[in-house]
TrEMBL record:
Organism whose genome encodes this protein: Chryseobacterium cheonjiense
Lineage, highest ranks first: Bacteria, Pseudomonadati, Bacteroidota, Flavobacteriia, Flavobacteriales
This protein's record includes keyword Cell cycle: no
Function: Removes the 2'-phosphate from RNA via an intermediate in which the phosphate is ADP-ribosylated by NAD followed by a presumed transesterification to release the RNA and generate ADP-ribose 1''-2''-cyclic phosphate (APPR>P). May function as an ADP-ribosylase.
Gene: kptA
Name of the protein in question: Probable RNA 2'-phosphotransferase
Pfam families named among the record's database cross-references: PTS_2-RNA
């Protein structure tokens, strides 16, 4: 269910004809209805449990739980209304060994997402890297990036976001 919600709330709401507002919020009742039309059934209690127990805290409700959205990772154009923040001196990016040469040459690109994702925790970044092969942990000099005028945002689930990481800020 979590993977399906990630798909429709981050990438392809059109597969169930779900409407997202400009900030990525979906009406919970409409989400339930559109999912039910596609034989995907869940109660509000099940949805609430998934939001609360998701290990990556991928989703968030509004205050009265009438709307839901993904915290980050969108490939569709939405405005998360994040405010820029000063990052810690260093953040981490996990990737697969096969990507390192390209990253050190071209930098870390957001590709089909709205932002590059960085972590304040080494173990979290390593887990991300494991999804794609032998993991490599890259240290990003985010304090220097910020000094140089590059903006950073912190998502609701504590993932640091930026537009691009130039190779000069990457330590391997």
């Amino acid at each position: 269910m979590s993977k399906f919600l990630s798909l429709v709330l981050r990438h392809q709401p059109e597969i169930i004809t779900l409407n997202l507002d400009e900030n990525g919020w979906a009406d919970v009742e409409e989400l339930q209805e559109k999912c039910a039309n596609n034989n995907i059934l869940f109660t509000l209690e099940e949805l609430d449990e998934m939001v609360e127990t998701n290990d990556k805290k991928r989703f968030i409700f509004n205050e009265d739980k009438t709307k839901i959205r993904a915290n980050q990772g969108h490939s569709i154009d939405i405005d998360l209304a994040l405010k820029s923040q000063q990052p810690p001196e260093f953040l981490y990016h996990g990737t697969a060994q096969t990507n390192v040469e390209s990253i050190l040459e071209k930098g870390i690109e957001k590709r089909n997402r709205q932002h590059v994702h960085l972590s304040s925790k080494k173990d979290t970044a390593e887990k991300v890297g494991m999804r794609h092969g032998k993991p490599v942990l890259l240290t990003i000099m985010t304090g220097k990036m910020h000094e140089d005028g590059i903006l950073f945002y912190l998502s609701e689930n504590n993932v640091w976001l930026t537009e691009f990481v130039h190779p000069q800020y990457i330590q391997y």
